[in-house]
Amino acid sequence: MSNTRFTTRVAVIVALGGFLMGFDASVISGVNKFVQIEFLLTDIELGISVSSLTAIAAVAMMFSGPLSDVYGRRVLLKYCAIIFAISAVGSALATGYLSFLLFRMLGGIGVGASLILAPMYIAEIAPASSRGRLVSFNQLNIVIGITLAFFSNYYILSLANSDAAWVNYLGIEENNWRWMLGVEVVPAIIYFFCLFTVPKSPRWLITQGKEPQALAVMNKFSSNEEAIKELANIRESLKLEHEKNKISYFQLFKPAMRLVLTIGLIVSILQQITGINAVFFYAPMIFEQSGIGTNASFIQAVLVGVTNLVFTIIAMSLIDRLGRKPLLTAGVGGIVVFMGLLAYGFNSASYTLSEDSLAQFPKEVSSALAHLSEQKFSDDISFKHATQKALGVEYAKKYEGEILEAAINMNPLLILIGILGFVACFAVSLGPVMWVLFSEIFPIKLRGVAISFVGFINSIVSTLVQFVFPWELSNLGSATTFLLYGIFALIGLILVLKFIPETKGRSLEELEKELVG
């Protein structure tokens, strides 16, 4: 029992890397609007500042594994904690777009490395009987980190309405976005010091020729008899890995691999091209487009995080009972429906500034917009262009939330239902199922190379989605943007029904024989 408690405690500590990864990736959602105004960013520059983290993370994932083989998993995780802390403080204190971008990119190194190293370490110390559950701590912590980032952003924004002396002393009202970014330094420091209580990976110690130390560590996680048996298994697996290191990426493109590679690419692209990271990284901005105002948009963003967390837990309980393909089919089908609802909701909106609504704005704003009074606009693009022409881009962006709230005529509940429904469908399907499928469909000899390749494609698509989203909102409009995501989901649903096999309850050898041939 003591061994089990120790193993669980170590796994929970290491999985905090997943928490930091989720927090760091999603905290930007509350910062976007304020940074764009502060540094006078174009939509392209905003897209770069958001998507750069994912792009750098994709590169970091490629190098973190080999580096951890040389220096150890625990050492690199400590560096990740330091990187998260420096990135948080540097981004919060940024004096311009370039410094902000560079520190966000630095955070991408921590995100990419922790995404690989935390589950790798946990898998290496966990007994086979509980490995799946313990490794899932990392995925669960990523989702918790995303959720708490939304909570943290809303709490800091709400402090601006407080009359507390300490709030004024810390300058939270004027620097709310800086505090949203800077608060991450607290869990990063906690993570750094907690890692000193974590032993070195026994598997890594064996690769360094330190078998006595490895056995001593393994005795903390299991009985001496089990540790000796596991030591022999690790020696054998290292021999197999030495052979796999000779595998070339070119072997992925042999005719025998065509079907499994097609399946991998379909799922990896579909997971991102339906817009999940547009929602996670721009949630308040999306809700603000429905005219509910800045504060309410942050509250609804919190609901996105909670929905993601709840349905991720549901997926973990269903994936081995219902199977992979039923979850994918139902989830992607649901995404089609809810993206259609979002497109309909935004398409039905109209925009009219009345004389009464103009009176609530500062005099210079109401005067500039006076000629638009009582004019009716049938889409958000023409309305935004008219306000930007009247106010200039800088002022139009600054007051965009308030102007939309004053002018829009639509049912914002449709948008809330559409976004939460989309997130729920993603969380029970494409979110968890993709990685499970990857671990099952690729032959063991090529599994590491294949997962690295399709994972890299997944990151590239995610980067592109994040990069173009602000431009899409400004140039295509909300309705067309979500309609495109719905069309991509519909195409994906057809491909899922045609190509994706059910892998539940089937041995890896059986799947390899059927899919690879």
Main β-sheet: number of strands, strand sense, barrel status?
Answer: 3 strands, antiparallel
**What is the number of helical segments per DSSP (H or I, 4+ residues)?**
27
User: Which architecture name of the largest domain does CATH use?
Assistant: Up-down Bundle
The CATH superfamily of the largest domain is: MFS general substrate transporter like domains
- Helices and strands, in order, run as HHHHHHHHHHHHHHHHHEHHEHHHEHHHHH
Are there runs of 5+ residues with pLDDT below 50, and where? none
Q: Briefly note the structural class of the backbone.
A: mainly alpha
- Total separate domains: 3
Question: N-to-C terminal Cα separation, in Å?
Answer: 45 Å
How many whole angstroms does the radius of gyration measure?
25 Å
Secondary-structure topology with pairs:
Layout lengths: L1 H13 L1 H11 L1 H11 L4 H29 L1 H20 L4 H29 L5 H29 L5 H6 L5 H7 L2 H10 L7 H6 L3 H11 L2 H21 L13 H16 L2 H13 L5 H29 L1 H24 L2 E3 L2 H4 L4 H7 L6 E2 L2 H12 L1 H6 L1 H8 E2 L2 H16 L2 H12 L5 H29 L2 H22 L8 H8 L2
Helix pairs in contact: 1-6, 1-7, 2-6, 2-7, 3-9, 3-15, 4-5, 4-6, 4-25, 5-6, 5-9, 5-10, 6-7, 7-9, 7-16, 12-13, 14-24, 14-25, 14-26, 15-16, 15-25, 16-17, 16-23, 17-23, 17-24, 17-26
Describe what you observe in this structure.
- The protein is globular and about 80 Å long.
- Helices cover 79% and strands 1% of the residues.
- It has 517 residues and is mainly alpha-helical.
- 46% of the residues are buried.
- The protein folds into 3 domains: 1-198, MFS general substrate transporter like domains (Growth Hormone, Chain: A, Up-down Bundle), CATH 1.20.1250.20; 250-349 and 410-517, Growth Hormone, Chain: A, CATH 1.20.1250.20; 350-409.
- The mean pLDDT is 84.
- It has a 3-stranded antiparallel sheet with strand order 2-1-3.
